[in-house]
Known about the structure:
By secondary structure, the chain is of the alpha/beta class. Helices cover 29% and strands 15% of the residues. It has 9 helices and 8 strands.
Amino acid sequence: MRKWIWLMLLVVMAVAVLGSRGSTFFEQRPSPTIVERIPVETLDSQPSREVDITLQVSTEKLLNHIQKLNFQRYTTKERSLTRTYITTELKKAGWKPKLEKFSDGVNIFAERPGTNKAAKAILVAAHYDTVASSPGADDNASGVAVVLEVARLLGSRSTPRTLQLAFFDQEEAGLLGSQAFVSKTARLQNLGGAIVMDMVGYACYTSGCQKYPTGLPVTPPSDKGDFLVVVGDTEHLPFLNAFQNSQNISSTALNKQESMPAVLTLPIPFKGLLTPDTLRSDHAPFWYQGVGAVLVTDTANLRTPHYHKPSDVPATIERSFFTGAAQIVVNATSALLEKNQILETQPPS
């Protein structure tokens, strides 16, 4: 993600809310053990419902992926090593990943067909590269880990919609992997929407640790950096709204020490034309192909001091927030796969 994406994004939130009120093979570097800080309190006011225990995310597996990816993923050889890890994990979960080369890199793609051929597919994706000199635990091993957990939990599950997975290369070089992905227009004809994760593992629990643009005329869900943001385009509000109910989960379905973060959904009008800084992650190329897409994020540099730095290591991942964020993505993905509802915004009746 680029450094200033959130400065304009949160201003748009105000407009949307007010307007709608209505080298060689290398070894991985060791890092300290991932620590657990204060658990996030869920702010969801809706009643909990029981969910299939088979859809419970594993904190251990999520954190293990981040530990295994604890190295810079910038050079050609480093990114090749990363692809080997991802494809190996996908095969363990029963998937048949394919490498899709483009001029500047290689994407990874896998698909599990649904039972209804007429139902459009749901894509879950994240970029796997980093900037130079950063091991990218949050940016974006956290997103990769969540996609791998979706693969494990939903890979053998029978659903009406087809589930697709993608791991994009060269996001940090200018969204090159996702642009190459959407350039294959034939694959987009049966794609209902894309869920893109870019930094979902960092939270802070002191007042004022979450930054905002000056004079933001709305009240955020917290004065701390303990909530998850989901950004979507206004042309596909049902797709974005799937995340509003994704916190509904029985307390028995998560480890009692974990809890779900609040979710702030932000609808962006006009495909981000008025706010170009909202287009700096892998959801944006989908918008310009007319495909609904959401960006799931912890707000990047407006929250974490480790953005694009060598200090973005596994020890800085907040396990409670990260687990809850992953569960929200799994819940929303599962709900979208089970229902064949229209995901485009419909005109008022």
